């Protein structure tokens, strides 16, 4: 690694002002790191900046108003100050290049300033700077790997330093070789054989290394995904150091004695093992004892002071009644022995896999199947954006999209609060935070509130992921066929055209059928063999002609027609189907009134009933 006498830290808009100073330093024989000559193509920008600072004896901070307003110059300044916090080696040299309208940053206020704003004293001030430069570059011995992985979390009050230490830790992890003598993570990256669960954290740290936008915001929340990615990589490199916290939480739940666990204070039970992970956290099969129905139970890790915001989000999403949306049924705290451990969210039963699990298990989807999944997402987003008042999902990721057994696509609600959790508040949310970062728009990453365009950006990013299996970059999203869509309705129209033009052989139902595990065919005592069966989670089903079946879906309260293994039709409009009891005759003597159960389609514009639970109808006798 090359060694330098001076790293010149400046705002890019001031390059013309700073360049003569750099040229004079070089003419005087100093080795100068200046991005115009040192930044090489093909290498992550942040990695080059961090390496340049670390391998330079001094950093000259070229102070201007623009310098004080840029996040990445602040990053460079904080890293230099971290390497010499007391200023004993004179590593950081602040130099005024223009009169400031604001105060000097607090972290360098105690250092003496050199002033190059006056031509009359320029030479004198320049000689002071040169006199402060010592040639030897301080050498630093590398930290042990475990200490390097812990170091970023010791600087959460200095986000730029935490980001710099994260870069150092990831660099050490890439070179790490475990005791088995297997390949390093760096070799796995180059060979394309990275384990699936490490692709997301690696893509996250690479995205941070690439980014040097002047309008970036470096706060503890904005760097939290990088810290989460580091946690996930460290768990791989240092096995046994950080066990999965959810296993311990699940094991601590009260045991019902029948293989299920109880959620104290509720009528819900939960059964292991984990069925997968969504943006909320681990998902388990459960049962609602009050209603006698299966449910999907999600355990959620949030700090206690975020409960109110989370439950407000529950209430906001619960009013969406749409066949393409999985809305929450109930939520509350999970307490064991009087101690709050986490939160639970009860969802309608989810008969399928997340889009993320599909791609990880089976690889990229065929073109038509990928577009069909995104069409289902776009329809759900249209329901969100056209609600009154409009709702922004804010966290559209493959982990939050469920693809049913027969190809029905549904979007899982309530993960936005997960992505906004500070990294030091709670364990178990790393995967959610990383996914949210990878599919978030640049505006959302910088901390701005989500808008409908945030959801549309994520939709384009998800399409790229489904087609390629790779996490998207900004350039990938810019090349998406959805890039010109301003509304979810426009995205639906574009996706419908693409689906119609693509071969029917690669449709989503065909992909899901190939991914199912074959069911054994039992033979009865009479020698009859089961030729064909389809497992469906439904409230009720009715046979139709030509081996078709009309199904009243359990999880979504809507109708579907199954044609063998294929989904022939599904009522995906925002009109839930509900059961009611009508037409009771008046009693005569002791005769019981006649009851007639019918299916009614709501004509209230898709508005869900204003209650948390959809209760079973009561039949009066």
Main sheet attributes: strand count, strand direction, barrel closure: 6 strands, antiparallel
In the CATH scheme, the class of the largest domain would be: Mainly Alpha
Number of strands: 21
Structural class: alpha+beta
How many helical stretches?
22
Report the C-alpha radius of gyration, rounded. 30 Å
Shape: elongated
**Cα-to-Cα separation, first versus last residue:** 86 Å
Look up the CATH topology of the largest domain: Transferase(Phosphotransferase), domain 1
Percent of residues in β-strands: 15-25%
Question: What is shown here, in short?
Answer:
GO terms for molecular function: ATP binding; protein kinase activity. By secondary structure, this protein is of the alpha+beta class. It has 4 domains: 129 residues, Rossmann fold (3-Layer(aba) Sandwich), CATH 3.40.50; 93 residues, no CATH class; 103 residues, 2-Layer Sandwich (Phosphorylase Kinase, domain 1), CATH 3.30.200; 157 residues, Orthogonal Bundle (Transferase(Phosphotransferase), domain 1), CATH 1.10.510.
Keywords:
621 residues, alpha+beta, Rossmann fold, Phosphorylase Kinase, domain 1, 4 domains, five-stranded parallel beta sheet
Can you put this structure into words, describing what you see?
The chain has 621 residues and is α+β, with helices and mostly antiparallel strands. The chain folds into 4 domains: 129 residues, Rossmann fold (3-Layer(aba) Sandwich), CATH 3.40.50; 93 residues, no CATH class; 103 residues, Phosphorylase Kinase, domain 1; 157 residues, Orthogonal Bundle (Transferase(Phosphotransferase), domain 1), CATH 1.10.510.10. The chain is 37% helix and 18% strand. The protein is built from 22 helices and 21 strands. A 6-stranded antiparallel sheet has the order 6-7-8-9-12-11. A hairpin with a 4-residue loop joins strand 7 and strand 8. The radius of gyration is 30 Å and the shape is elongated.
